[in-house]
Amino acid sequence: MELSKQYAAELEKRVGGQQRHGNWYFTLEQIKQLPGIIKSFDQIDDLAISPYHITENSIMEAYWCILSIKVVDEVQDKFDVLLSETGKRSLKGLEHHYIEQWDYTYYEILKGDVKGFIDSVSRYIRYMEKREPLLREEYDEPNQLDQGFYYEIW
């Protein structure tokens, strides 16, 4: 089993999670347990955490807020990677909120750097604590009682 799936299984065992639409999802409050789980495993590998707005009838991914951590032999400058991804030559060509978002959601971590990995996950969680209320304003549907943001680990 992939290490990220092992993290998710351990998180589900500790806090429950919710199975919806055939996958396991966790609230941000539950995701806060993840750094401790990673520390207890003392192993790292590529990780992604995708936020979804889920209602009784729909599921919508907030794809621009996906956490992506790549475990690598050599770390590239994250902003050089952003420029490469966008085809831009300078950060001046990008809006500030895109740069900020990239800074909180994209990481390259050296193999074996468990502390750096945990710090990246924790930083993403703090970022999403600020972003999630804004996302709810955008995504929440009137007259829907059972709705909210949930996160999938993969």
UniProtKB/TrEMBL annotation:
Going by the entry's taxonomy, the superkingdom of the source organism is recorded as Bacteria
Instruction: Give the protein's recorded name.
Output: Uncharacterized protein
